[in-house]
Design brief:
4 helices, mainly alpha, elongated
């Protein structure tokens, strides 16, 4: 399937991922419950994405790097939560891995779409 405008799709996917992460984190919490202070780490993940986008000036190549960095930051939060047992007993390791893996996959797909846009722009 060929995406007609991968840049727009990548922006939409990244924004939707950020909004859903913000919503889920505020409503029920990703790590444990919404009252668990460990959930504040996800604001750092979102900050990496926003700061990366501004530094990249929303250009496709830079946005690709920013979204890969966001995925890495999200993976690190997941690793800290699992190793530190921060969500225990409400959120077990498998639950944390699956839910966070979903978000990480969305960040990575968006990054690859930005990369595709950058490659087609230089070709």
């Amino acid at each position: 399937m060929k995406i007609r405008n991968p840049y727009r799709f990548a922006v939409g996917l990244a924004v939707a991922t950020a909004l859903v992460l913000f919503w889920v984190n505020g409503a029920v919490g990703v790590i444990g419950s919404e009252n668990n202070h460990a959930n504040l780490m996800y604001f750092g993940v979102l900050a990496v994405g926003v700061i990366g986008a501004v530094v990249a000036r929303f250009q496709p190549r830079g946005m690709s790097l920013a979204l890969f960095a966001t995925a890495l930051a999200h993976a690190l939060v997941t690793l800290v939560a699992i190793i530190g047992r921060l969500g225990f007993p409400a959120s077990g390791p498998l639950e944390l891995l699956l839910l966070n893996g979903f978000f990480i996959a969305l960040w990575v797909v968006s990054a690859f779409l930005f990369r595709q846009t950058a490659r087609t722009a230089t070709a």
